[in-house]
Design a protein that fits this description.
globular; single chain; mainly alpha
Length: 230
């Protein structure tokens, strides 16, 4: 009703409203080694070169997010097919199903504490694969689509938490810079997945999207299982 710009304005307003709350509630944690911004940015490549766990986690994050974003990039196209005849508004409502993934986050953290983040990451990748298996096999049915979204989002949340537990344990003094490297690569994966999955849709429709996503997840499995990092 208000147009697409209103969505971003509303998101900006909510974000701004949370700033004083976060400033009040979050603990003050000055960096152990204050660095000039230029020095901090120049040190990012050294972290990539010196931290094999960071390289592995970033690769898995790139591939996993490329797979995950492929669904959301092409959901509107799927809902416009004869199976559904739904518009863009319906696509937005599927985002509410992401609450299931958020509620699973605390359980993933407990699993990682008990068995280690690599075990949690294995489960996360399995959930992502299961989600796409549901979406590929039953994506033309509303119940199958809903189930696939819930499993997919839970797997994505679990992957992100597991990866960040691993990288944040590498160096307390460099956590912000380590997260910078990881998130840059992570969102590059999202851009890559959006672009390639849209091409896959134009050629092979939903089967092409799911096939591309599962290929990304297979590569993520290989990085995770055979990356040579414990």
């Amino acid at each position: 009703m208000l147009g697409w710009r209103a969505v971003f304005l509303l998101a900006a307003a909510f974000t701004a409203a949370f700033v004083p709350l976060l400033r009040w509630r979050l603990p003050l944690a000055p960096p152990p080694q204050p660095l000039a911004y230029s020095v901090a940015m120049c040190s990012l490549w050294n972290l990539v070169r010196e931290q094999p766990v960071l390289r592995q986690a970033s690769a898995v994050g790139f591939l996993g997010f490329a797979a995950f974003i492929s669904f959301w990039t092409n959901l509107t196209f799927l809902l416009g097919t004869p199976h559904y005849h739904l518009g863009t508004g319906a696509a937005g409502s599927f985002g509410l199903l992401g609450v299931a993934g958020v509620t699973a986050a605390s359980q993933v953290g407990k699993l990682a504490d008990r068995h280690g983040p690599r075990v949690a990451l294995t489960l996360a990748l399995a959930l992502l694969c299961a989600g796409y298996a549901l979406l590929w096999g039953f994506g033309d049915r509303l119940a199958g689509l809903i189930a696939g979204v819930i499993v997919l989002d839970t797997g994505q949340q679990a992957m992100q938490i597991s990866n960040q537990i691993r990288i944040f344990s590498l160096s307390r003094a460099a956590r912000s810079r380590i997260n910078t490297v990881y998130m840059i690569v992570f969102f590059l994966g999202g851009a890559f997945g959006s672009a390639v999955s849209a091409l896959a849709w134009s050629r092979w429709q939903w089967s092409g999207v799911c096939g591309f996503a599962l290929t990304m997840l297979a590569l993520a499995w290989m990085c995770h299982a055979f990356g040579g990092v414990e």
